[in-house]
Each structure stands twice: as C-alpha cells, then as structure tokens.
C-alpha cells in the first residue's frame, strides 16, 4: 500500500515536468508555423523556376537543332545546281539556330533564380 502511495505521489509531482507545453507557454510555435509556410513558398518558387527552365531549355534545344540541321542541308546544296537555295538555307538555318541557342542560354537564368541568385 505504501508503494502505491509513493508511486502516486511521485507521478503527481513529476507530471508537470513532462506535461506538454500550452500555447501560452510557447510563443515560438507561431514563428515555427510561419517559418514552415515561408519554406513552402520558397519551395514552390523553386519548383516553378525549375519547370520554366526545363520548358525553355527544351524549346531552345529543339529550335537550335532544327536551325542547324537546315544549315547543314544548305551547306550540302552549295556548289551544285541549287547554289542559291543552299545559300539561303545557310543564312536562314544559322539565324534559326542562333535564336534557339539564345533561348537555351536564357533558360539558365531560371536555374540561377531557383538557386537563390539574382537573375
């Protein structure tokens, strides 16, 4: 009986030590929630910038591949009966290829933004 009484008394006196904190006792709970929300917003921005970068880089690669393929086709036509067409394809394909390369390079700015650096 004395043992039960000692256990009950010790639980009674030790329970405030192990009790959970109430909202009055933890002002940092709101700041923790705020930090989590800010981290979620940052992650959403990073995800959005990575998606933009992926779309722009794919578009740039496709456009530059088409442009440089046209340039190669124009170069193959030079020196033959379609010399004028080959020259036109060289200039046109080069311009398309350079445009695609510029789009590809521009897509890297979204990677810099996602990495936390300014554009």
Shape category? rod-shaped
Integer-rounded radius of gyration:
33 Å
State the separation between the terminal residues, measured CA to CA.
75 Å
Q: Report the major sheet.
A: none
Beta content comes to: under 5%
Report the strand count. 0
Estimate the mean pLDDT confidence: 82
Structure description:
The protein has 119 residues and is mostly helical. It has a domain at 49-119. The protein is 82% helix and 0% strand. The protein contains 4 helices and no strands. Helix 2 packs antiparallel against helix 3 and helix 2 (28-77) runs antiparallel to helix 4. The longest helix is centred in the middle third of the chain and has 50 residues, at 28-77. It is rod-shaped, with a radius of gyration of 33 Å.
How do the strands and helices of this protein lay out in sequence?
Elements: H1 2-18, H2 28-77, H3 83-106, H4 108-114
Helix pairs in contact: 2-3, 2-4
Q: Notable features of this structure?
A:
rod-shaped, mainly alpha
Summarize the structure.
Helix content is 82%, strand content 0%. It contains four helices and no strands. The protein has helices spanning 2-18, 28-77, 83-106, 108-114.
